[in-house]
Write a structure and sequence with these properties.
single chain, alpha+beta, Rieske Iron-sulfur Protein, Naphthalene 1,2-dioxygenase Alpha Subunit, Chain A, domain 1, 19 strands, binds FE2/S2 (inorganic) cluster, binds fe (ii) ion
Length: 343
């Protein structure tokens, strides 16, 4: 299975986890060290000293520089070695690779590719906006990024893994429109609001209509919208950072608008989200172990697997017009399909 494309921004850490000490992270399989220079801005370098390859994350930040813990070589925010204590001056150009790094929405993002980033990281929806309440979660999933994204955008599992929380056991036919572009897979459901689930009883005004949209956004973000009229709107956005093939750091921002009682709703909603997330963590951990035990994936996909196979295809065959794709030219045709799924 193809990994997600590297030429994009990925979250390497939460801003609040990066203080005065260097922080080790693994992004797209590569060891990275994050640190803040004197002005507080984050930098990201390959976590390997050029000298004898001790991880730079074992060192410390001194005078705006990252100092290796072994022989004290120092590096600036762009990875250039600026001091070798055992020599009067640094001979020639010595350094370690640096990643383009920005801080936005409370996260430190690094650009995983070799090219220059064409734009900024995609903002999380409605974060910090008036009328919206938001909270964030970080979870390490013992599963690959594709398995995570498919899970976050998959309705049929909810009746089993989250039995009773979202939907009642009585399955119904739900028409769905799937639209696939170079950057996005979008599924719009023509769904009636569920009355029997825990979530519905807690959160829904009577007589509300439901607009439910699931989206995959390149390279590795899922976004789920449940809108019940203009005053009630819940959005769950998860950015997946591949650590290894079988480990993914998932940064989730939940944004919602709930009349004027956002703070009150959060008291119920946040623990509920965490509980639902734990159920997904458990089933994905089990799936990873089971697939490994049986000798690797041999999946059977059917028409109700609306999103996973399309993500795999976008990763495998990036289309012209994709953000970060260097192919340029005409944008790929948009695929639209109507499907009825039962859940
Ligand atoms: S290994 Fe880093 S200074 Fe020697
Ligand atoms: Fe789930």
């Amino acid at each position: 299975m193809s990994p997600p494309p590297r030429e994009h921004w990925y979250i390497a850490a939460r801003s609040r986890d990066l203080g005065r000490r260097p922080l080790a992270a693994t992004v797209l399989g590569a060891p990275v060290v994050l640190f803040r220079t004197g002005d507080g801005r984050p930098s990201a370098l390959a976590d390997r000293c050029a000298h004898r390859n001790l991880a730079l994350s074992r060192g410390r930040v001194v005078d705006d520089r990252l100092e290796c813990a072994y022989h004290g070589w120092r590096y600036d925010g762009l990875g250039a070695c600026t001091l070798i204590p055992s020599l009067a001056e640094v001979p020639g150009r010595i350094g370690v690779p640096a990643y383009p790094t920005v801080e936005a929405d409370g996260f430190v993002w690094i650009f995983g590719g070799q090219t220059r980033p064409a734009g900024a990281p995609r903002p999380f929806p409605h974060l910090g906006e008036a009328g919206w309440t938001t909270f964030a979660m970080k979870n390490r999933f013992e599963a690959g990024a594709l398995a995570c994204l498919e899970n976050f955008l998959d309705c049929p599992h909810t009746a089993y893994v989250h039995r009773g929380w979202f939907r009642s056991a009585r399955a119904k036919d739900v028409p769905a429109r799937v639209t696939c572009t170079a950057d996005e897979v979008r599924v719009e459901f023509d769904e009636k609001p569920e009355r029997d689930s825990v979530l519905a009883r807690l959160l829904l005004p009577r007589g509300s209509t439901l607009q439910h949209t699931d989206r995959f956004l390149m390279p590795a973000t899922s976004r789920v919208d449940y809108a019940f009229g203009p005053d009630w709107h819940f959005i769950i956005t998860s950015q997946c950072t591949p650590v290894t093939d079988e480990v993914t750091d998932v940064y989730t921002v939940v944004s919602f608008r709930a009349r004027r009682i956002g703070t009150l709703v959060r008291l119920y909603f946040e623990p509920l989200c965490r509980r639902i997330m734990r159920q997904d963590l458990d089933v994905l951990r089990a799936q990873t172990g089971d697939v490994r035990r049986s000798g690797g994936p041999r999946f059977t996909s059917v028409a109700s697997d609306l999103v996973g196979p399309r993500i795999a295809r976008l990763w495998r065959e990036p289309r012209p017009g994709a953000s970060g794709s260097s192919s340029g030219g005409e944008p790929a045709p948009v695929e639209t399909r109507e499907v009825v799924i039962r859940y």
